[in-house]
Design goal:
The chain is mainly alpha-helical. It is built from 17 helices and four strands. The chain has a four-stranded mixed beta sheet with strand order 1-2-4-3, with helices on both faces. The longest helix is centred in the N-terminal third of the chain and has 21 residues. The protein is globular, with a radius of gyration of 23 Å.
Length: 346
């Protein structure tokens, strides 16, 4: 018969408790009974109908149906916040827009990639159910698709979230090579259908539910804020890959995991944690092909401030199983979260 010493029993009990805590934090939750059913509204198709239907009549219909979204869309499309949608000049501009070959080509490709959006609708329904599970009082927004003119993937406004379908046409879309100045290859490689749900949820988190405080000035405060957003995605999108959540390649994620301790040491050695000079810290949060100054042969991952903040928040939540997601997201004490995470990568 095998016997286990008292010390080993205590150690095993402690180890099992830690494992159960970690598993419990990320275990699947049952949201099947939460009454949420997302219906994606295809504004892009209804907007296109202005080309064939009486324009003034269709414009009035769209303005009434889509409200604030319609105004915001027209402002972005025409780059004019003061446009009068009842003015004849407005319709003249739209007729010129519909008459261009570029519009026809864009419409063709959007319709080809997204004739229907049943899969995306199901993914968003599941995600929104998770939001309701953690935040029962949250009023969920309408989900509306549109042509962004390659302006932005997601537009969050008054009770709506808009999906710019032209920014989700797939990495090999014929349009993206022409806009590399705005969206380099390292960004457009993620412009695909798999990113629709994560980017919508991230947009809601960042721009609606938990906008960044003006006090988030230091590298540490930015780290923790972004780490909380990524942790929010962990909870709301439990089946989405980490690479998709943060926009990494598999190699970039592997690099971060391999050099986690060196990344942290770099921030400490360079006295960057409390640095508030935007020009010095922005490179750790913005999309890029790599992070200059770290790694060899430009193999380092970008957005190391976001990734590191994510790891700190995960450590903090693993050590504090009593802290709810709501409590985490409203806790703006970055220093406390760092201290109590006891983040010490090895």
């Amino acid at each position: 018969m095998v016997t286990i010493s008292k010390t080993k029993q205590i150690y095993l009990f402690f180890l099992i408790s830690l494992l159960l805590t970690a598993c419990g934090r990320h275990k699947k939750i049952d949201v099947s009974n939460i009454p949420v059913d997302v219906k994606i509204e295809r504004f892009d198709k209804e907007f296109d109908a202005m080309e064939t239907k009486p324009m003034a009549q269709q414009a009035a219909y769209l303005q009434k149906k889509y409200g604030f979204f319609y105004h915001d869309f027209i402002t972005v499309l025409l780059q004019d916040d003061g446009i009068n949608t009842k003015d004849s000049a407005y319709f003249k501009i739209l007729r010129k827009f519909f008459a261009t070959k570029d519009y026809d080509a864009l419409k063709h490709d959007v319709d080809s990639v997204y004739p229907e959006m049943d899969k995306e609708q199901a993914e968003l329904t599941e995600a929104f159910k998770h939001i309701k599970y953690y935040f029962p009082e949250k009023k969920l927004p309408r989900v509306i698709t549109y042509y962004s003119g390659f302006w932005d993937q997601v537009m969050v406004g008054d009770n709506y979230v808009g999906i710019g379908l032209d920014d989700f046409l797939g990495a090999n879309s014929r349009f993206y090579p022409a806009i590399t100045e705005e969206y380099p290859r390292y960004m457009s490689r993620n412009f695909n259908a798999q990113n629709i749900c994560p980017r919508v949820v991230e947009g809601i988190a960042r721009e609606d539910m938990f906008p960044e405080s003006d006090s988030s000035k230091t590298l540490l405060s930015n780290m923790i804020y972004n780490g909380k957003i990524l942790y929010f995605l962990d909870m709301i999108l439990p089946d989405v890959a980490d690479t998709t959540k943060i926009g990494y390649t598999g190699a970039q994620l592997k690099w971060c995991q391999q050099f986690q301790s060196k990344i942290w040491a770099y921030f400490l050695d360079e006295n960057l944690l409390y640095e508030s000079d935007f020009l010095k810290i922005q490179k750790f949060f913005t999309p890029a092909p790599f992070t200059s100054g770290l790694g060899e042969k430009n193999e380092s991952a970008p957005k190391l401030g976001i990734w590191t903040g994510w790891q700190i928040v995960k450590e903090y939540m693993n050590k504090h199983p009593d802290v709810t997601l709501q409590e985490l997201m409203t806790d703006n004490d970055a220093q406390k979260i760092l201290n109590e995470s006891k983040y010490r990568p090895k």
